[in-house]
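Proteins fold reproducibly. Consider a sample protein:
=====
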Amino acid sequence: KTAVLIRDGREVTVSIDDVQKGDIFAVRPGENIPVDGVVVKGTSAVNESALTGESLPVDKKPGDKVSTATINQSGYLECEATRVGEDTTLSQIIKLVSDAAATKAPIARIADKVSAVFVPAIIGIAVLTTIGWLIAGVPASQAISYGIAVLVVACPCALGLATPVAIMVGSGVGAKNGILFKTSQSLEMAGKVNIVALDKTGTITKGQPKVTDVIPAEGYTKETLLQLAFDLEQKSEHPLARAVVEEARAQNLQAEAVDAFQALPGNGLQVVRNGSKLLGGSLTYLESLGMVGADMKARAAELAGQGKTPLLFARDGKLAGMIAVADVIKEDSARAIQELKNMGIEVVMVTGDNERTAETIGRQAGVDRVIAGVLPEGKETVIRQLQKAGTVAMVGDGINDAPALTRADLGIAIGAGADVAIDSADIVLMNSRLTDVSAAVRLSRGTVRNIHENLFWAFFYNVLLIPCAAGLYSVKMNPMLGAAAMSISSFTVCMNALRLNLFKIHDASHDKKRENRARAMVESETFQVARPQVAADGGHTVVLDVKGMMCAHCEAHVKKNLEALDGVISAKADHTTGRVEVRESREVPENDFKSAILKAGYEYEGIEA
């Protein structure tokens, strides 16, 4: 809601509404970036997962763009405002949410359809009963008594209670288990879903980098390698470094004092400990220093292929080992996805992360289909395409998920997510557990089944007693007895609805797999995401050699800058080999390639022959 502007050398806090294009604003570590801008001073790592879906923060330096609602995680930044007010990325996403909400169709309620036929039919039966007995010659008082008995015994109290009581109890059961259904429609719709689209970062995964592998070189143990890495990274604020520090502290290690801390932009870190020089950085950097053997290089490539970021460490010019860091999946993600599949639901992962990382996470989680590299507006487009195949639920937690949550037939927000995502959703999972998605579907199906049971008993009761009230069985029913019978039917419906309090929403043993006709279309569909399209003539591929890329986010920087060039269709970078495959629709000048790579902060080494 506020921004810190630099005016006449002083910091002034102002309302967001007062920020103008061209103003210089300051952002300290831990603060949100207030408006879109360009960095003019300082370096930092910025968490952009809310907007882009990238699992790890992105390094920023002078000349790089920053977006509102992203979080500055490490260094101090001064930026020039470029887009304010309704022009910011966040405002554009909010507009997408609004546009999607305006076109969302309402869900019809079961009771509305039934009562539209039932009430006129009962009135007609009562009138016909009265007329019929009058024609039969009975006294008018008795004929009217039969007609009144029909109206009383068929009073639609049970029918009127069948739906709202079950929904009330079902919503209460969900709330007690941390599943908030915002409307009765959302409770009804959850059970009809046959496609679930899941965001990756913060939904399937924890959204925070963690150490996954510790691989010591000869002469080192896992503990001594981790100690070396801890000593080296203890003063760094980079998210990858923090993952190493957190792992070391979890192992009860204590950092030793170091001197001569030096950051090597695009490469790594260097310190001196007890007279020994400690070095840590990317595979490309340490390989350029001649420290990496073939075995360690192969292992690094294997880890990178699994969507992990390998960090290599050395002491006095000799390799000490490698530590891999990655965004890991939540403990319950795989089970939750399997439960959804057991219900006959097709599970699709839609993420803004790169394809290699997304495919790895997708395999671990067990999803049916992975759609990667999708921008916020692209997610909404993917949801629309999925809706052609069936009823779609979108599960997400970030600002970037809000348009898709609103566009989907059912939006489900993770409770720990951004406010705009929660506001856009129909269901909120307060415990932030993915297993609550399958629990919500299970509860919805149980509630709708309970409503159908209530409607059955209401109609079964009427089928039995309306003929009696009409005198067809030679039984004269006093209207007062009809009122008592009607009360019993209402009591039965309420008691049946209250049985939902005994419903075990996390018990998957009774799940039934429903036929899903959407599966074939989802598996065969080519989804149009917000990425460059290949030229009609097939284009031409050139391979560039780039030095300094350390992780998937470095790849993303290079890709973004190259794809901004006129004539470049797409770019695919690989930090493990230092190669970038560029697809061009026409011959792009080499100087343009060089400028784009230098602007991204890496070294250009030429075009491969």
Q: What stands out?
A: Residues 99-108, 530-538 have pLDDT under 50 and may be disordered. The longest strand covers residues 205-216. The chain has 21 helices and 26 strands.
